[in-house]
Amino acid sequence: MNKNLAFGLLLLGMAFMGVAFVFVKDAVTSYSPFVFLFYRFLISTVILSVIFSKNLKQINIRTFEASFLCGIPLFFSIFFQTIGLRYTSVANSAFITGMVVLLIPIFKLIFYKKKVKFIIWISCLVAAIGLFIITLKNGLQLNIGDTWTFACAIALAFYVLQTGKFAESPNPMARVTIIMAICTIGSLFGEMMTVDAEWFPLDFNFWKGVIFSAIFGTVYMYSVQNYVQRFISEEKVALAYLTEPIFATVSAVILIDEKVNINTFLGGGLILLAMFLSELRTANLKRFLNSTKTVKSSSNSSKI
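Given the sequence above, the corresponding structure tokens read:
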């Protein structure tokens, strides 16, 4: 697959995820996050099982191993994010989740001993500054929702790295189906331990959030990600995640009239700048600098 097409499909998934933030916040404000996640993952598992039924026949022990190692961090990332959305704004939740772009190269270096390009570190630093500006509320304090969301970013970084680790493994669609099943079981156990759980909410907004996030924010998003990571690096995936806050913020302003302050605009601008910086190739940058020196040199020679 063409790398630009792969990245484009991933960006579309981020757009769906951004809109899903709004629906999820609306749904979990009054209901248990575990109930919401249970239905979200159950629907996703059923849809994927139907679409990729042929792939499921090729499952082996390695498929289960890869699914488990990817599914556990994914479940916790979405669970932490869902809890966080009950106590913080859509914009804050989305941008703090974007901290994954900084955590991935750090974890990649620490746990996988892989080198990271210098320009990626620069873009991560710019993104971190942007996220810091966005979360500035009441001095330097983060509310409980922001803290849960930061935990989400940590778990999400591990998920992206694990997905990259198994990207070349055969049968990625069977793997993502099992991952959704693991998340369904995790949500079910969590809800069984919740006192006075309301299993069948009679709220249209709840089910609207479940269906949208299941089909677009889960089935499409994670199927595409598990497939395209064969063609693009973990850093590229992380940088695609940087667009998610932009989509989420715009959706929140349009759909639920969420107020966005100047910090969000400044921080968001820095995140976009980080994306641009990350696209700069060191070789191209050197060529540009050398060409500039050549032009200056020839200009000085002509004057002589």
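The CA atoms of residues 30 and 86 lie 9 Å apart. Try to locate this feature in the token string yourself.
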